[in-house]
Amino acid sequence: MSTVQISDDQKDALQEILNISMGQAANSLARLISCKITLSIPQISQTTPHEFSQLFEQGETMHYTRQSFLGDLKGEMLCLMDKSGCDAFAEAMDYSNPPSATELQELILDVSNVLAGACLLGMSKQLTLRNTLNPPMLFDPTLTDFSNLKWQSALLMEVDFVVERANFSSRVIICLEESSISELIDRIDKLLE
Amino acid sequence: MTLDELFPYVIRQLPIGVCVVNPEYNVVTWNNFFAERLNITEQEVHGRTLADLFPQQFAFLKRKIDSAFLLNHSSFSYWEQRPHVFQFQSSRPITGEETAMYQNIELFPLSAPEAAPEFVCIIVHDVTVQASYYQELRRMAGQLEQERDAQKELLRKLKETQSQLLQSEKMASIGQLAAGVAHEINNPIGYINSNIQSLKDYMQTYTQYNQSLMQLIDSTGLDKLIAQKDLLAEEKQINYLNEDIWDLINESLEGAERVIAIVRSLKDFSHVDSSEWCYADITQGIENTLKILQHEIKYKAIVHRDYQPELPLLYCQPMQLNQVFMNLLVNAAQAIEDKGDIYISVQTPESGVLEIKVRDTGCGISNEIQQKIFEPFFTTKPVGSGTGLGLSLSYGIIKQHKGDIQVSSQPEQGTEFCIRLPIVDEPTDKGM
Predict the structure, then answer these.
(1) What is the pLDDT of residues A77-116, one digit of tens each?
(2) Closest Cβ–Cβ partner in B70, B74, B76 for A31
(3) Domains B3-126 and B278-422 alike in fold
(4) pLDDT tens digit string along B412-431?
(5) How far, in Å, CA of B231 to CA of B112, rounded?
(6) Chain A residues with CB inside 8 Å of B106's CB?
(7) Which parts pass through the membrane (chain B) (predicted)?
(8) CATH label, B3-126, candidates 3.30.450.20, 1.20.120.340, 3.40.640.10, 3.40.50.1000
(9) In chain B, which among 39-78 make CB contacts under 8 A with chain A?
């Protein structure tokens, strides 16, 4: 199966779109927790399963969630959260301090849902695509056999959110499955026309 | 019926909870799932606030609803973190073990296309079955893990026992060999000893007879005969023989006795006859052991004894206990590098208990090692010098006496072993 390649122009356009939608995501989160949020420039890359598995090399120092989405685009959102920043963040989110284990899980799921939802829906809206997000789930990469993934190539769009006041950082990655890449490129081409 | 007319019926009948609220947290409507459980109909609930309906959960619901309105997309709650947001009874009141319903909740904004959300819809999934199944699974996994750990531990003990057994078999066969050799030597040395003894008696008689004979010859007054006799005696060095013969016999007897003693100690070593239970004086055993160890101890340590007077006799296996004292005293002596003291005390601190303490002023034992000293084959001595069985055997012997042995030690200060033995009166309680 030949992989769909994404051109530099398409990449630039996608990056611009992501910039806007990620900005909206940051804005949403900022309103929810009344904290200033900074974000990185979105990174877009095509990846192989092996490269993908390297995302999880930080292992135990991070919390991970995953959230699948369906519709015009199919794929999964991944959220990587630095464990050390989560306690301070919990305080900003009105949880008891320090949060209990289940409170922390709830917080992680909440935050990733907010970020992933805003990112994906913002992007979909600009590209006039329709998508529904399924509930986020906690994800333990140590229990996953990355050598056994069934795909050859995926598109990753990642951005880092940082809540400076709470010393909290999170990386959101939109992972698009191969069959959706051409759909995405189609829409970008229409915008570029 | 049109589709628009049909939908409200479907929604009412859905097996999931549906509740629509406005931004003021007032319920707009809900379906039968809510109505039946709370006994408030769709019509009655219209306009009532969540704060009023669910006062305890309101703060949580408010946060979730705010988030859905604000971000214009779904927010979720799971049974793992919040099992019972709505206080509904279990869907299995008769057959189920759980009393409250486990719920997954989704809140999503409702809006016309391209408009800000006007309502939030709360969907409640009853996941009691999955939740209790999952919990049961987890409980079983935990149990399995425990059992696996227990098995591991058992296996470890089995291996340990096996090697202990192997070693004790080895010791037993060495013991048997020693006993066999001892037995084989015992017979010949027995008759050698008694024969020499008889020979000595005979020789005494014979010398007396010889002396009488000489005197008889002397008393005849026949000078020629007497001269001949003296010549013969001189020629055969009889005077010298008469002296040397006794040395030879006595030395042989001594040698035979030494061989007998060695055979006896070989038998003792092999523990043949040594496991007999009888009443014994513990201090006597300690003294005997000290005598045996004299050469090992006397250049290194001064032994201080503190025996309580009029100690009761202990019903025990004296030879086995001597083995224990031997181990403790040898260790104590070896712990002392240059010169030191060994304190031995035997007391009855309470009635029915005999307490034996052996304390040295040696190098002491570190904490980590203290935990291992009673393990078989554990030794700090160089390879070949210690079997690592001494304290393990001692521990076994003390346990056989239903007693207890404990160690307390400070590195560089010394070590104290404390043995507590119950004073058992009833000979019927042999234990083994």
Answers:
(1) 999 988 877 777 777 666 766 778 888 888 888 888 888 8
(2) B70
(3) no
(4) 889 999 999 998 775 554 44
(5) 154
(6) 135
(7) none
(8) 3.30.450.20
(9) 63, 66-67, 70-78
- When the candidates are 3.30.565.10, 3.40.50.970, 3.40.50.10800, 3.40.640.10, the CATH number that belongs to B278-422 is 3.30.565.10
Nearest residue to B269 via CA among B168, B172, B188, B185: B172
Is the separation of the CB atoms in A156 and A91 below 8 Å?
A: no
* ipTM of the complex as predicted: 0.74
3-class secondary structure, B372? coil
- Interface contacts A/B by beta carbons within 8 Å: 44
Q: Do A113 and B76 touch (CB under 8 A)?
A: yes
Spatial distance between the Cα atoms of A9 and A188, rounded to a whole number of angstroms: 10
CA atoms within 13 A on the CB side of A31: 16
Q: Do A102 and B80 touch (CB under 8 A)?
A: yes
Q: Cβ contact (<8 Å) for A121 and B73?
A: yes
Token representation of residue A64: 């991970």
Partner residues linked to A176 by β-bridges = A75, A155
Q: Which domains does chain A have, with CATH numbers?
A: 8-192 (3.40.1550.10)
Chain A residues within 8 A of B71 when measuring between CB atoms? 28, 32, 114, 117-118
Confidence (pLDDT) at A154: 85
| Mutation for B interface: A102, A104, A112, A130, most B CBs within 10 A | A102
Per-domain boundaries in chain B: 3-126, 157-269, 278-422
8-state DSSP, A97: S
Q: Test A102 with B81 for CB contact under 8 angstroms.
A: yes
What's at B186, amino acid-wise?
N
